[in-house]
Amino acid sequence: MSDAGKKHLIGLLCAGITLALGTAANATVIAQAEFTDGNGTSSADQWTGVAGGGWSTAWAVPVNQDNPAPMMSATIVNGAPLNGGGNYLSVANQPGAALTGPKQSHVTRGVDFASVENSAAVTGVSFTVRFDEFAGGADWLAFYDVTGSTYLNAPQTSWKVTMDNGFWGAFYASASNARTASNVALILGDTYTVDITLDYADGTYATTFTNLDWETGDAGTASATLSDLTLTSSTGFGEKFAIGARVAASATAFEALNYSLDAIEISTAAVPEPGTGLLALAGILTMAARRRRPAR
After folding, report:
1. pTM of whole model > 0.70?
2. Which of 92, 152, 198, 204 has the most CB within a 10 Å radius?
3. Strands (E), the chain
4. Residue 7's pLDDT is what?
5. In whole angstroms, what is the distance from residue 199 CA to residue 190 CA?
């Protein structure tokens, strides 16, 4: 066989092996919340909803500190859409009285992993959020995964991203549970998408923050990616998707941390059907064998 023929044969074999093993396709969404059905407790895509649609529980508010009234309230809004129209969740966090210390609220929803091998198969989390009122300073909003019932100060199971000190950032595992900040800044009224890529096999994650409304002259940049962040735990996604808000109101003036949320997705990498790839490999090997057969 000529050198050109050998190279062609090697190329065919490599292509066949790639097809047989399968390549990463589009992600498969295992849990989604778009709040299509509004407020209620009759369907999975409501606030607070019921279990279903990839969720093992309804939405819950396990922490809603008061002084004296509950700090958090939430409702579905249809109008001034975040991104693309339809319903979204509007959340208000405002203490009911002047504070001498911070107060927190946390919103959680259990994830149903029945459709995947285990929780470590989760490879992505994404959502859309808008900050409607945010005093900044010591206030923060955190998105994270959690296992168990400890929520104060948002102790993540494996990953956590936050709006804190005026910029989006992410936490990574270390002795001090350190945070690294991006240069995507807090701009009230702007809508952001957050896309998190999880790699439990490698023990790392990455997150991309994008301000959909950013214009030249605005603070920070339109988009930024933080990569190679160490997961707190590489055993898998926590039991629940969670959102934590911390309001540090003074004794003389109230502060509010209000935000709107939509298009939450938890996903896994699509697994290609092995049969298709193996059939393709068999065909390629047959072609290769015919090319090698000497003429008679």
Report:
1. yes
2. 198
3. 28-33, 39-40, 47-48, 60-64, 72-78, 87-93, 103-110, 122-134, 140-146, 160-164, 167-171, 179-185, 191-199, 204-211, 223-230, 240-247, 257-268
4. 46
5. 29
